[in-house]
Design goal:
Blueprint lengths: L8 E5 L2 E5 L6 E5 L6 H14 L3 E3 L17 H14 L2 E5 L6 H7 L2 E4 L7 H8 L5 E4 L6 H13 L5 E5 L18 H8 L4 E3 L1 H5 L5 H10 L4 E5 L17 H14 L4
Parallel strand pairs: 3-4, 3-10, 4-5, 5-6, 6-7, 7-8, 8-9, 9-10
Antiparallel strand pairs: 1-2
Helix pairs in contact: 1-2, 1-9, 4-5, 8-9
The chain binds phosphoenolpyruvate (PEP) and manganese (II) ion (MN).
The site of manganese (II) ion (MN) has 5 residues, from loops.
Length: about 260
């Protein structure tokens, strides 16, 4: 079980430090699944900032199930994220899939995301431990809590103590109605076991935008420190994960509800 105080992870963003931690206000991360083009990422950044998000998320390298699906725009998407951060003042969170891209990803992002499919890529985790940017470690889709905490330990043991854990749903037997089963019990369980901050991703956790608000509020009630929510200016036209993406208007409505149930940073 956990010994000592909850960790506070301080992330420098263009508009000052944002702190993730048990005793800190809720930090909301929002943005599209993929960075598709300049216009959509700038527009999304502007909207989610106005609604109260502190970080813009968006994939440049996408770990798609099919090799024929859109794979992300790579380096040019990283440049668009940098531009969106500059224009909006939001911090950036984006995924690194391959350690060969680590340097260029670390150059633009404020927090480096490790996706579900790479949670046990131990050589990548060791490299992330040997650099300074905070790491967002998503739970593997079939990972136990123990697997997940040990994956985090690889980063910590390699020298980087700034790790945020993100529950994004585990494999479900009911693919008909939800994409994954969002394990909200992970929140109190992790609280017992670790000092690390806890983020919940109800977008990948459910797969459907209409379920995101309920699960976001449930996650707050269960004590999460942060939320990651997919937002797209035109979800039906999204190149990835449109079905689970909120419109900017729906996101704004949700943020107003979250303000009632939580202190949002
Ligand atoms: C994502 O955040 O866009 C993503 C691919 O998530 P996950 O690794 O949880 O599937
Ligand atoms: Mn996605």
């Amino acid at each position: 079980y956990r010994h000592g105080e909850a960790s506070e992870i301080v992330v420098n963003t263009p508009e000052g430090d944002v702190v993730f931690g048990e005793h800190k206000p809720l930090v909301v991360v929002a943005g599209p699944c993929s960075v598709e083009n300049e216009e959509m990422i700038l527009e999304t950044a502007k909207c989610v900032k106005a609604s109260g998000a502190r970080f813009l998320r968006g994939g440049a390298y996408k770990p798609r199930t099919s090799p024929y699906a859109f794979q992300g725009h790579g380096e040019s998407a990283l440049e668009l994220l940098a531009a969106a951060s500059k224009a909006s003042g939001l911090g950036i969170i984006t995924e690194v899939m391959d350690s060969a891209d680590l340097d260029i990803v670390a150059e633009v992002t404020d927090v480096i995301q490790v996706g579900s499919r790479n949670m046990q890529n131990f050589s990548l985790l060791k490299k992330l431990g040997a650099q300074e940017k905070p790491v967002l470690l998503k739970r593997g889709m079939a990972a136990t809590i123990e697997d997940w905490l040990m994956a985090a330990e690889y980063i910590l043991a390699s020298g980087n103590s700034n790790v945020i854990l993100c529950e994004r749903g585990i494999r479900t037997f009911d693919r008909q109605y939800t994409r994954n089963t969002l394990d909200l019990s992970a929140i109190p369980v992790l609280r017992n076991l670790t000092h690390l901050p806890i983020m919940i991703d109800p977008s990948h956790g459910t797969g459907w935008s209409s379920y995101v608000p309920s699960m976001a509020k449930a996650a707050i009630a269960a004590g999460c420190d942060s939320l990651m929510i997919e937002v797209h200016p035109n979800p039906p036209k999204a190149l990835s994960d449109g079905s689970q993406s909120l419109t900017p208007e729906a996101f704004d409505g949700l943020m107003k509800e979250l303000l009632v149930v939580s202190k949002v940073m």
